[in-house]
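Worked problem 6 (solution included).
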Amino acid sequence: MAFEFQKTEIEDVIYVIPQIFGDDRGFFSETYKKSVFVANGIKDEFNQDNHSKSVKGVLRGLHYQMHPKAQAKLVRCVKGKILDVAVDIRKGSKTFGKWVSRELSEENKCMLYLPEGFAHGFVVLSDEAEFLYKCSNEYSPENDRGIRWNDPDINVNWGIDFEPQLSEKDKKQPFLKDVTDLL
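Solution. The predicted structure is:
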């Protein structure tokens, strides 16, 4: 099989390890194959791809979109190294407010799948990083939402010992307890 699918501490978030075929010329790897992903429980139809570049210390998140434009995501880092974080914001979920993280890098070439109902963010650990993500819905400004990256009730361990660089929008995100329009 071209991929290994591992459940994380939050059952619906899946760590995807691609098979890498390498030799002295370089490498080849499949990054997505619908039939294999569907057979392993990832049934989303991806409708938008995004590519971001950030420098060390940039933290993007925690972001999500409301219904009817909620997004499942399949994310990977193709240059550098990041810590990727998913927070369960599904009302009534047994893991509501819990988070899971994985290091994604150009070296490990792994991916993280987040279904709808998760806030998503990442922090750049290398000098720079390029990050790709597939989204099940197109970006919708009117459905765009977020949660404060350092919410004490969630208590994400970002694995950093410095103050991250944030967008003005991310500096002003609400705490989870103050959000009324969760998924």
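Discussion: The longest helix spans residues 34-39.
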